[in-house]
Amino acid sequence: MSADGLAAVETVLTGALDSVPASLREPCRRIAHAGGARLRAGLVLAVAGRAWPGTSRRTATAAAAVELLHLAGLVHDDLMHEAPVRSGVPTVNAKEGTAVALLAGDLLIGLAHRLGATAGAGPLLGDALTERCTGSVLEADNRFHPEVSATTALRIAELKTGTLLAAAGRLGALVTASPEDGLHEYGLAYGTALHLLEDVRDPGPSFAAGIVTLPAVHALAARPELRRLLRPGLAGAHRQHAGELLATGVPPALTTIGQLVEQAAAARPDLADMTKRCRDSQLSLMPRHRPVLNS
């Protein structure tokens, strides 16, 4: 993944966002440039770069399409969770309102598919969107349910994040007509690990929104008193106490992240550099939560 490749992707993204109606342009740009690492685009470029030097217009277009689909998911997630902030900037629903957030997310999906169609990526993106929506439905169906299993929490992470990373890897092969060997397995494991990593960084906001993430599943099993805090309107001292209890679920979730990173590296050893960042984050969080393991 080169700086030139990412610059080419940004050029395509800028052109796509410039075509957005004026009333939606600023909120879409704000979310698009809110500090995202462009991991999905980076995976498209990394896979394509192993088969063909440089970044073709088709590759940059496919990478931008994946990013736009990811951004659409963020906008809709923030709307469903009533989140006020995303990566340090106001969410679309918080600043511009529900209607604008709904339209912005839908428009980003349309832009993603328009770009994807020109790169021959329509079916892959369609499948990824369907699976992501399925994950969102599964998540919504289980809000405020203390009986959510680790299997269900993992499946939600896989559907909402893993499937789009898997699609990104396969797109890198598609645009260069190179083999897809191991790319689906790699992307699925890597993406699921990334989703869980976000869950363990700060499990409190998700729990307050009724979302039972993997750390929450483990914490609910270890600290049954957490169950009575899984309710709408959690705030103040009760929310702070919930955060303290949730910390008990972080270490086993970090272990799962490590296992997923290992699965990804085994599926595609040549892409181990992509998973190193996730592994480094996981290891950096382990010492912080090690006292919980011994309590």
TrEMBL record:
InterPro entries: Isoprenoid_synthase_dom_sf, Polyprenyl_synt. Its cofactor is Mg(2+). GO terms for molecular function: metal ion binding; prenyltransferase activity. It comes from the Bacteria. Pfam families: polyprenyl_synt. Coiled coil: none annotated. Keywords: Magnesium, Metal-binding, Transferase. One of its GO terms (biological process) is isoprenoid biosynthetic process. Belongs to the FPP/GGPP synthase family. This is Polyprenyl synthetase family protein.
